[in-house]
């Protein structure tokens, strides 16, 4: 057995409802997938889907608090449906895409909005706006074998008990099947991959002390606080 220079990091895991752990491989995020959010951000509604990524160790579970990140004065919440991939595939046809889904969860795509705005203006990558430490709080994964494949239902985010974001999964421009099919044309999806499917309108800033509670009808909840 090879001698490691240092101990390999433990796998990042997310609890599965009714027991077990889902080991995270990669996190892909769909950009601009709800019309009202596209409008509030001033972007083109007719663009095809595009993707950015977060590292696996950005995941935060169990309702744990997250620190207010450095290098930003405009830290935003984005509630999203998270798709957990359970079967490998590339160039997956739309009509076969859901067979590759293990389950679903509610998640938060936390964003340094001011850094993102600078990156957009300069034509630079989004990593430092999206892919930083603790930027992906995620709730328990519900197996599709138990809840099916939700294509409608309320998706909401409250800050300190006040609703900030409110939409419906049916409002997604690119549904789960289409997102999987499109993404799998660029990369081979494998068990352990997550796809965060975009956020409805109402994104906004949070500060230290805020408590965030997200919910997706038929899927579950995600909770965190800013410290």
UniProtKB/TrEMBL annotation:
Hydrolase among keywords: yes
Database matches in InterPro entries: Fumarylacetoacetase-like_C (IPR011234), Fumarylacetoacetase_C_sf (IPR036663)
UniProtKB keywords: Hydrolase, Metal-binding
Protein name: Fumarylacetoacetate hydrolase family protein
One Pfam short name: FAA_hydrolase
A GO MF term: hydrolase activity
Fumarylacetoacetase-like C-terminal domain ranges (all copies): 27-226
Superkingdom classification of source: Bacteria
Species assigned in the record: Devosia neptuniae
Entry-linked SUPFAM superfamilies: FAH (SSF56529)
């Amino acid at each position: 057995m090879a001698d490691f220079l240092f101990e390999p990091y433990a796998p990042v895991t997310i609890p599965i409802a009714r027991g077990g752990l889902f080991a995270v491989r990669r996190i892909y995020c769909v950009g601009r997938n709800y019309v009202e959010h596209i409008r509030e951000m001033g972007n083109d509604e007719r663009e095809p889907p595009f993707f950015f990524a977060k590292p696996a160790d950005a995941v935060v579970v169990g309702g744990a608090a997250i620190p207010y990140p450095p290098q930003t004065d405009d830290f935003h919440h984005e509630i999203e449906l998270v798709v957990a991939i359970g079967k490998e595939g590339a160039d997956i046809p739309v009509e076969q895409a859901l067979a590759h889904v293990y389950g679903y969860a509610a998640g938060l795509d936390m964003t340094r909005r001011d850094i993102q705005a600078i990156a957009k203006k300069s034509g630079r990558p989004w990593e430092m706006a999206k892919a930083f430490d603790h930027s992906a709080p995620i709730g328990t994964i519900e197996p599709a074998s138990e809840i099916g494949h939700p294509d409608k239902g309320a998706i909401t985010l409250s800050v300190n008990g006040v609703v900030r974001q409110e939409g419906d999964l049916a409002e997604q421009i690119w549904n789960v099947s289409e997102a999987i099919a499109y993404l799998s044309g660029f990369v081979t999806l494998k068990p352990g991959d997550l796809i965060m499917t975009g956020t409805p309108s109402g994104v906004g800033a949070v500060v230290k002390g805020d408590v965030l509670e997200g919910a997706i009808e038929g899927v579950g909840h995600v909770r965190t606080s800013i410290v």
